[in-house]
Design a protein that fits this description.
TIM Barrel, about 240 residues, about 25% strand, single chain, alpha/beta, globular
Amino acid sequence: MSHGSERGSPFRLIPVIDLRRGQVVRARAGERDAYAPIDTPLARGSAPADIARALLDAVGGDRLYVADLDAIMEGAEPDRASLEAVACACPGVTLWVDAGFSDLPGTERFGRLGLGRPVIGSESQHDAGLVRALGDRAVLSLDSRGTERLGPDALHDDARIWPEDVIVMTLARVGAGTGPDLSGISRAIALGQGRRIYAAGGVRGPQDVEDLARAGAAGALVASAIHDGRLSRTLSGSG
C-alpha cells in the first residue's frame, strides 16, 4: 500500500486465511467453533490456494497470514498440505503461520519445512520462554478477547522480549466489522519503541487503514473487508 505511517515506512496490508479441516473458513467475532467454509465473490469454493491467491490479487502485497485453527484449537500438527498448496500458488509471498506453536522443538520442526515464518500467539504460551528463544525468527501475536489479555502478562508488558514484528490481535473484533482497537494499537506502539506493530481485527475499510497508519501502525491483517469489496487495490492504494 502507498499509505505511510508517521514513521515514514509504507503501511502493509496483509491478507488473512483461516484454515479448518483443509478449507478456508470465514471468521466471525473470534468464535472459532462457529466458523463455516467461506463463500466469497473473489473465488469459487474454499480451497486454501484459491482463496489465498484471490486475496493477494485483490490487494497486492507479498505477505499472507495463515491461522491453522485445527493446530491452535486442538493441538494438531500444522496443515502441511494446505500450506504447501498456498506456497505453490503464491510464489514470492512470505507466509506468517500461526499453528498454535508452544514449544521450541515443534516450532523449529516447522521452520525446517520452509513454509513460512512462525507466529507465536500469546494465547498458546505458558511463559515467555519461546518468544525469548526465537527472537526475530518469529512474529509475536499479542492476543486478547474483550478486556481479557490472553497468555502470560510478561508477553504483553515487557517489550524488551518482543521481536521486530508484533501483531495486536483483538479476537472479538475479527470479522465483526467494529473497527480496530486503536487504543490497544497505540499502547503497543508506545511500548514497542520501534517495533513494527500490526493491527488484527475490526478493519472495515480505507478510513480504518488511514487511522491506523496515522497512529503509527506498520500494517493490518485483513480478510472480511477484502472479501466484501471494501478494500481493494483501487480503494487502498496498494500496488
